[in-house]
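Entry for the shared binder. Reason: the reviewer on the internal report wants the predicted structure included alongside the sequence.
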Amino acid sequence: VLYCSAEESAEQIKMRADRLENNNTNIYVVSKTNIEQILDDISNLNPSVVVLDSIQTVYSSELESAPGTVSQIRECTLKITRMAKDNGITVFIVGHVTKDGTLAGPKVLEHMVDCVLQFEGEKFSNFRIIRSVKNRFGSTDEIGVFEMTENGLLEISNPSMLFLDGRPENAPGTVVICSMEGTRPILAEIQALTAHTNYGTPRRLSTGLDYNRVNMILAVLEKKCGINLAAYDTYVNITGGIKVLEPASDLGIALSLASNYKNVVLSPKMAVFGEIGLTGEVRNVSFIEARISEAYKLGFKKCIIPYTKKSISSNYEDMEIIQVKNIIEAFGAVF
């Protein structure tokens, strides 16, 4: 492995390697910013893997523009990808992201590589998520969950258990949903809070969920269920620092809001998922069997799912699976 560090010196990397007790003698480090010099080092060493950190700080002497400009990023990426293809070398190109989470630099950079992996994490949390947002040879939206420790990144094999750790007992406004991240089912907790507003316009806040979908569900609750939250501030949060943007979280959002508004505690051993339409129907979602299986493995005893014509496996002993067609039926099954 050849690690090309354009930001840190070799001494800094050596200090980190010593702290992590990494004694691998197959890792070589160079601290250079000129892409032509880096390509010469690759030719001389002929490594299996090259890591370039980062593409925004590397420049080509053939161009007069400064490092990080559109022309420099495009040219340096083109040169190193050509080297990788000609010599059968796997190259990891580290790139910065903007404040809104998109890849910095020209959009063409994404199209010049085979796979784009986003490294996500809140600065106040030890957990990190690697998410596949583009994959030329496989599926997208796959994730890996890791914990940042003194010994580096450690894989978390069961992220569902992690995100449900510390869940409050006998608290209204909390419900567990089953979300799909690529082909991986993950259980997460949605918490909702409703409080009388002191202002003319109530506040609507959501963390980790689609803000517009939360507002849509609030309208459906008022129209179809008679739950008028026009005089209430509403706060919806998904715990664990993850983001769930798929519509299958709709039913969980609706039940958590209604639970807190009615001050009714929902069963702690219940998982829900389903998309809610504007007419109040609970629409079908993908990977129903995988979601139920994940809830069953973690000991859940009840699962509220959309009505489906497909047969559900009978292997879930002691688990009550309730299929609902609309939000009224869902409320009747839990309240």
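Summary line for the report: The first helix runs from residue 10 to 19.
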